[in-house]
Amino acid sequence: MRPERWLKKLTFWMRLVLHRREADRELDDEIAYHVESKTEENIAKGMTPKAARRAARIELGGVEQVKERMRSVRAGAWLDTLLQDIRYGLRMLRKNRGFTAAAILTLALGIGANTAIFSVVDAVLLKSLPFRDASQLVAISETYPSIPEIGASVADFEDWKEQSNCFTQLAAYDPTNFAHTKLLVHNEPLDAQGVIVTHDLFPLLGISPMLGRNFLPQEDALGEGAVVILSNRTWTTDFDANPRILGQSITLNQKPYTVIGVLPPEIRFPGNADLWLPLGNLDKDDRTNRFYHPLFVIGRLKLAVTVSQARAEMSGIADRLASAYSQTNHQFGVSVRPLIETYVGGLRTYLLVLWAAVGLVLLIACANVASLLLTRWSTRQQEMAVRSALGANRLRLIRQSLTESIVLAGLGGLLGLVVAWVSTLWFSTWLGKIFAAPILRVHRIRIDPAVVGMTLLISTISAALFGVLPAIRASRTDLERPLQSGGRASQPAHRQVTHRVLIAGEVALALIVLITTGLLVRTLRQLLATSPGFRVDHLLTVRISLPGEHYKSDQARIAFYQSLLTRLRALPGVEGAGIIDQTPLVSNSASSLASTRFLVVGAPPLKPGDYPVANFRQVSPTYFHTMGIPLLTGRTFRADDLTRDEESGMVINRTLEQRFFRGENPLGREILLGVAAGHLRKIPIIGVVGDTRDLSVDSPPAAEMYFVGFGQVSTVVVRSVTAPANLTPAIRASVAAVDPSQSIFAVETGEELVDQSIARQRFSATLLALFSALALILAASGIYGVASYAVAQRTHEIGVRMALGAEPKIVLGLVLREEMVAPLIGIAVGVACAMGTTTALSHLLYGVGAKDPVTYGAVCLVLAGAAFLACWIPARRAMRVDPMAALRHE
Amino acid sequence: MSKPSDLVQGTLDMLLLKILALEPMNGFAVSQRLKQVSGDVLQVSDGSLYPALHKLEQEGWITAEWKTSDKGRRAKYYSLTRLGRRQLEREADNWGRLSSAISRVVKLKEA
């Protein structure tokens, strides 16, 4: 278009915006002139003035319609109409306060819940890992029949690197060997978490040091690598953020290391790492054999390679290694998972379930609003008829009602954002409390542009969902009837059908949400009722790490712990105290649990690759008694077992006894250890104790062996008389009294251990319970609305029936029967759908089946009850219709 | 919007431009003139005439001003613009080509 034409358009626009009235007056004048001229002409032809004017108007074809058509060809007419529709829509919403409040509140809850869950999904699942292109990263580890995830041996890792084609790169880290490092700062030893990494791990993750350099390939070589990279936190808190730290020597576990770099603040990978060392720090023995499995591997997938392709390739490699090295690798498999899953693990599935549930709640909300709109538009039929008589075409009417829906959704979305904002504050504190893993950016759960964008999208989708059907219905107004009947439009049957279909759908969706909730709540109750195998109440656990050369001797450790235990037992309020290397229920301990292969002496021989595996733990003699783990047969350790020179025997748990002795007496039998590495030791069984849940409350107990003794890192368990947390200062003082250079960390009560173990289940069950309540309320109010409307429509009919002698009870039954049909169909459909969907949840359930009849039955009853109540209230109203009043109403 | 009856689509614009090319006139006069010159063959309802005139004004092909009519009342008078004149030539050309092509086809003798 040429500039002059633009200018012209612009002036029209300006005129439209600034001088709308004037433009409309000109329109009036022009048409009036035409009609008058025509009338004069007709009079001149001999008509009466009245007939002349009438003829002129008829020839024009309706003054208002022509004017409307003239307006619609104006430039910017759409904007004009839009503004007009919004103004009109707002006016209508203001006029029907009750309807507006109900619709906006319904939408706000639906949209708000969705936005809130999305903000969690966004922060935890989508933006959680602070690495470059994190979606291409996979975590690779080895598997063994009874162990889902163990590290890889260095030799296996080397073979993987050589034989795999799916990855651009493979790198590895060892989180255990330097996990408890003493870092000397101003001659004071501090606990630091060190991690050994291959030189290419940081480049693979896309991490560049903020200061200094990365590790070099030659620093991975054996005996090399007296260099260290510090975390930003260690650098700032322990070295005063001194930029001249680079090149300086610091002392780790009494050896000098040169600082070569500092990482950016957000990187503490893995776990809460404080410093990183190159692979050269791994001992010679640990890196040549295939028995020792220290390395966790991270791979970056090549473009367009999927996780399952990588999994297929890696299991092929694992099979080849298993047959090539059957002594060590037989039955070893490999696990390849998206890296994010190793952090959020089960939480991912729970979040997706929650997301699906809020989606259903939103659908219910939309169905409710659609039903409200349908009802309202049918009362506005007269208005629609007048509008189309005045020249509004059908498209125009659809646009008008859609605009009103969008205004409604917009207001709902705005309020929903407030709902979401409040919930995110709650989520971030709650989730932060129950998920300790710092890599999860729980603190980043907030309303950011992505979340606002999602709200906008959800609002638009809901407007489309609930607006389109009523809009099309509204536009299908026929002109004659509403105008003639003076506004008392009777309801065509098909509209009732639409209402009923919506109701049945709502009930079906609500049923699915309720059943999912029921199953997870029952799971939570089962978990709470499951004993972890020890007495949870009045129990405090604290961690202690004894690093350095001094505590490498057994005598030194025994002396330290004996003295500590004596002091603890003497504390007021302490009933007992014991030591174990790692208590049960410590989450994410799959990699920190020590396990070994063994053979039962006297059992049928096995091939080397088929040797069974058991966890082994080191405990003090008092451990079992303190924890309340029952002794089943034989004896537990005695104090003098610690100091005897020969092997003092082992205590096994019930699972090991049942699996390998099958009713025989295990006491006095011997277990052969060191079978894989070749230095054999025979150890007698002296007792059997009860099982404990090691990983989490819902994971079955594994075979376990207990030995007497103390490791360099262990957990002190204290049984208290009063509230256990009050003992912390006294325990800290006792530790300092035995050795002033030691401190305690990770203080937790028994209840906290259990709570953390079932945090995910509790989180999702609580939220689902909220969503279910919402779904139930929405569905019930939907049923109530439709039933009330139906009764109102039939007041006349009911009046006639009662005038003809129908009993109130019969009327009640009549209404109930008709209104209950849709909810009952909804329940039936919902049960069928839920049967299909809940089986997908079965791996989240514990102690309850996916088709648990109790849950299904209870939910059906609750929904049917709610539906009955929602119908009964309007039905009672119908029963009380005064026949005279109803008939006079006509 | 309903189409002008009995008119080849798009030709109403051309007719209006042509009529206004002769002299500026108001809407009523255009309606009179249209019936007059076409001998009542072309039925253009008054209801379609005004929206069409407004569309031409939007396009910038005609311009409008309020003048006193010969009956002494104020009326909106439309006149052709420079752009409108060019548009008319273009449409007249097209029309000429189209109509002569159609008449050639219609006059074909059956073999």
Structure commentary:
The complex is a heterodimer of chains A (890) and B (111). Chain A is 54% helix and 15% strand. Chain A has 890 residues and is an alpha+beta fold. Chain A starts with a helix and ends with a helix. Chain A is built from 29 helices and 24 strands. Chain A folds into 5 domains: 3-75, no CATH class; 79-136 and 346-489, no CATH class; 137-344, no CATH class; 497-531 and 756-890, no CATH class; 547-741, no CATH class. The mean pLDDT of chain A is 84. With 111 residues, chain B is of the alpha+beta class. Chain B has a single domain, classed as Arc Repressor Mutant, subunit A. Chain B has helices at residues 11-22, 27-37, 46-59, 82-106, and strands at residues 25-26, 62-68, 74-80. In chain B, a hairpin with a 5-residue loop joins strand 2 and strand 3 (74-80). The radius of gyration of chain B is 16 Å and the shape is elongated. Chain B starts with 10 loop residues before the first helix and ends in a 5-residue tail after the last helix. The A-B interface holds A 4-5, 8-9, 12, 26, 29-31, 33-34, 36-38, 40, 59-62, 65-66, 69-70, 72-75 and B 1, 26-28, 31, 45-47, 50-51, 54-55, 58-60, 66, 69, 71, 73-76, 83.
- List low-confidence stretches of chain B: 1-6
Number of helices of chain A: 29
Rg of chain B, alpha carbons: 16 Å
Name the structural class of chain B. Answer: alpha+beta
CATH level 1 name of chain B: Mainly Alpha
> How many helices of chain B?
4
Distance between the ends of chain A: 61 Å
- Mean pLDDT of chain B, nearest integer? 81
Quickly describe the structure.
Chain A has 890 residues and is of the alpha+beta class. Helices cover 54% and strands 15% of the residues of chain A. The longest helix of chain A has 41 residues, at 394-434.
Present the secondary structure layout.
The complex is a heterodimer of chains A (890) and B (111).
Chain A: H1 3-18, H2 20-44, H3 49-60, H4 63-73, H5 77-95, H6 97-126, E1 137-144, E2 147-150, H7 154-163, E3 167-174, E4 181-185, E5 188-192, E6 194-197, H8 201-205, E7 211-212, E8 227-230, H9 232-239, E9 249-252, E10 255-262, E11 275-278, H10 284-288, E12 296-301, H11 307-324, H12 326-329, E13 333-338, H13 339-344, H14 346-379, H15 381-389, H16 394-434, H17 449-475, H18 480-484, H19 493-529, E14 539-545, H20 554-570, E15 574-580, E16 595-600, E17 613-619, H21 623-627, E18 631-634, E19 650-653, H22 654-660, E20 670-673, E21 681-689, E22 704-708, E23 713-720, H23 728-738, E24 744-749, H24 750-757, H25 759-793, H26 795-803, H27 808-838, H28 853-879, H29 883-888
Chain B: H1 11-22, E1 25-26, H2 27-37, H3 46-59, E2 62-68, E3 74-80, H4 82-106
Antiparallel strand pairs in B: 1-3, 2-3
Helix pairs in contact in B: 1-4
